[in-house]
Every structure is written in C-alpha cells, then in structure tokens.
Design goal:
With 231 residues, the chain is α/β, with parallel strands linked by helices. It is built from six helices and nine strands. Helix 1 runs antiparallel to helix 2. The structure holds S-adenosyl-L-homocysteine (SAH).
C-alpha cells in the first residue's frame, strides 16, 4: 500500500478527531500510568490524524498502532508516551542547551513531532525513502524543525554525535553498540529489544563516567529494525 497524505483534508470527520476525542485518549493514557503533564500536553497538541492515511484518520485517537504503508506502523500512543516520558527523565545540568535527541525509525514522523513539540532538538533517521519523504512534508506543513536523513539507522548519526537521548522505534535483536557509543555521558537511550512477539522496552543510562545502567520497562510490540536502505 502506498501511503498518501491529505494534510488539509476536509473529509476528515470533525467528530472523530475533535478535542473531546483527543481528551479521551489523554485520560486513557493517564489511567495507564502516564503522568508527565508535558508529555500529555504534547500528545493533546500534535494532530495524530495527520500522520496516518485519511482512511484511518477516524481511528487516530484510539490507543493503538496503525498501518502507515510498506508494512510499517505508527506506534501506539501509550508506547510513544512511555518512551517520551523516559527520555524526559534525562537529568540536564542547569543552564544546559536544548536536549538533542536522535530517533531511529522516522516512520510517519509522529514520535519525532512529539519530541519537537516538547522543545527538544530532534534528529531522525529512516531507511524507507518514501516514508521519509512523506514525514518531511508533514514536518514542513506543521512547522516542525526536525533534521532527518535517509540511511540505515543502525549506524546512528556519527557526524552529529553525541546525543543526550536516543530513541529507537523498531525492535533490534540486541542493543546496537554503535548507538550506545553515540550517547552522551548522562544520557538516556530507549529501545525495544527482542524477536517479534517477545520484545521488551529497555532503558539504558550512561553516567558521567561512561558506566551503563540497564532497566526493563515494559513488554512491547514493534516492527523489526532492518538492515540497509530502500527507496
Ligand atoms: N517512530 C515511528 C514508528 C515507525 S515504525 C512513528 O512515530 O511513526 C518503525 C520505523 O523504523 C519504520 O518506518 C521502519 O522503516 C524504520 N526502520 C526499521 N529499520 C530501520 C533502520 N535500520 N534504520 C532506520 N529506520 C529503520
């Protein structure tokens, strides 16, 4: 299926994407343990229905992953919220410049937009060229300044490293060493790890001395982190 965007679609049912429907999603996230108000506000503000095909817009505020073409999915809002909340726990020294975040797996662009809406400086990498082109259009239309590149994200973005936070939105069989290496001291990395069906969301923290601490956050379901690039 080829994903097409309709950013200014008048055909989207107003009722299905209304503020009330969005508020209901926020309440559901809250009930499921998301309590960082900054994250909840970002999810309330970013129009998720503009990150999926028009035919799916009416389902955009359900707490569920949705197809975005090329066998890929936009992540479930709870997972986006949990990963974002985890990254925001990164301790920043007073007066430090804006936190720089690297995302691997741009997909629809929704997670990157949430991070940008929180005022973070976002860098995102996607291996499927067509998905990246569509995501870039959304960033432009919605006014998000997000740097992106078409590449195999398993190599990270070495020229721009280190990053204060790294978020991987596709599941790797094991943590990717190149990404851990690009994490700044004091930084946080979140990544789903494991084979399909049995993945765990992992949070990795690097302390100022470079020592690594790893924690398991939740069972999750993600598409796989794949090698190489496609147009
Ligand atoms: N963060 C996305 C989730 C998309 S699903 C969103 O908010 O919509 C995961 C994405 O990771 C897919 O688009 C897939 O193509 C991409 N991906 C998988 N392996 C990758 C790799 N090695 N490098 C970059 N992107 C990758």
């Amino acid at each position: 299926m080829t994903a097409r965007i309709h950013l200014h679609s008048g055909a989207v049912g107003v009722g299905m994407t209304s503020q009330r429907v969005r508020d209901r999603l926020i309440e559901r996230l809250r009930a499921n343990g998301i309590n960082d108000e900054r994250v909840l506000n970002a999810i309330r503000a970013v129009p998720r229905h503009l990150f999926v095909d028009e035919a799916l817009a009416t389902r955009a505020y359900e707490d569920t992953a949705l197809p975005i073409g090329h066998g890929q999915t936009i992540s479930q809002p709870w997972v986006v919220a949990k990963m974002t909340e985890t990254l925001l726990e990164t301790a920043r020294p007073a007066g430090a410049p804006t936190m720089r975040v690297l995302e691997i797996g741009t997909g629809s662009g929704y997670q990157a937009a949430i991070l940008a809406a929180l005022g973070l400086e976002v860098f995102t990498v996607e291996r499927i060229g067509e998905l990246l082109r569509i995501a870039r259009k959304r960033f432009r239309t919605l006014g998000f300044h997000i740097r992106s590149k078409h590449d195999d994200g398993r190599i990270g973005w070495p020229e721009l490293a280190p990053f204060d936070a790294i978020i991987v939105t596709a599941a790797a069989p094991a943590l990717v060493d190149a990404l851990t290496a690009q994490l700044a001291p004091g930084g946080t990395l979140v990544c789903p790890v494991g084979a399909s069906g049995g993945q765990t969301l992992i949070r990795l923290r690097k302390d100022e001395s470079g020592a690594i601490d790893e924690a398991q956050l939740a069972p999750v379901v993600f598409v796989p982190l794949l090698p190489g690039m496609v147009d």
